[in-house]
Structure formats: structure tokens, C-alpha cells
Amino acid sequence: MNIRTAVKKDLTAVHGLERDGFGDHGYPDFFLRQAWDLWPGSLLVAERGNALLGYVLAGRGEAATEGWILSLAVAPAARGQGLGRQLLRAAVNALEGQGCRRIKLTVLPDNPALHLYQSLGFAEAGREEDYFGPGEPRLLMVKA
């Protein structure tokens, strides 16, 4: 497994993973392109051979010492192999290397990845019942 910074030709595959993983709540392709432009080096991909199997998008927050994990997705065929953990660690390391001392993310309260975030030091810091609108709760998690 190879984790590397995304290049422009990866964006179509990243968008496919985003759409497959998050459906209507996934980021549109144009946002992923703009994020790639805005935060150079913050879109990481995992590949095996020629297959892109996962990605993570991270960025700095309003404060220079705050970072966000904006999206993390792994192809269904590659789940359960530790790829999400590797991607998340790589993103956290990148953000910490940029001076981020607090890293945040949001997650559905019943998302199976919740245990992954907790195992890497993220703790629940709040809950918003209508994060994306009515009936769309999210937990705010913080790693400090």
C-alpha cells in the first residue's frame, strides 16, 4: 500500500470514492478540485498498483493551530485492512507538521469508523442534532 499526495489525475477517482461512501452528503467534484488547489498536500490517497483504494482530505481551520479532517473514505473492497487508520494517521501527522495542535472532525453518531477515531486519540467534544439539516446529527470530535 502506498500513501501519497494526490495529483490532479486522481480527482475523478477520489470523487467516485466520496460519492460511493457518502451519497448525497458527499462533496461535489468541484469542491474536491478547489480543496486540492486551496490546501496543497492535504489530499492524500492510498493506492495499490494502479487502484486508488482510499483518500483523506484535511485542512487548516480558521486558527493557524487548528486543523480539520474533512473527509475520509476507503473503497468497500479495501475496508477492514487498516487503510483508514493509515490515512488518518498520515493526515494527522501532516496537520501537526503544519503546527496544528487541535484537530477536529465530525461523524455520524452510529458511524462504524467512530472506534477508529477514538483509538487515534479523538474524543467527543459535542453533538449537533441538525448539522446538515433536520435529522442529520453529527458528533464533533477533537484530538488535542
The assigned CATH architecture is 3-Layer(aba) Sandwich
Largest sheet: 7 strands, mixed
Number of domains: 1
| Arithmetic mean pLDDT | 94
Percent strand equals: 25-35%
Protein structure class = alpha+beta
Helix content: 25-40%
Low-confidence stretches: none
Question: Going across the major beta sheet, what is the strand order?
Answer: 1-2-3-4-5-7-6
Shape: globular
Distance between the termini: 28 Å
Oligomerization category of the chains in this entry: single chain
CATH overall fold name: Aminopeptidase
Beta-strand segment tally: 7
Order of helices and strands: EHHEEEHEHEE
- Radius of gyration over alpha carbons? 14 Å
Report the CATH C-level class: Alpha Beta
CATH superfamily annotation: Gcn5-related N-acetyltransferase (GNAT)
Count of alpha and pi helical runs: 4
Domain N-acetyltransferase: 1-144
InterPro entries: Acyl_CoA_acyltransferase, Bact_Acetyltransf, GNAT_dom
Protein name: GNAT family N-acetyltransferase
Pfam families: Acetyltransf_1 (PF00583)
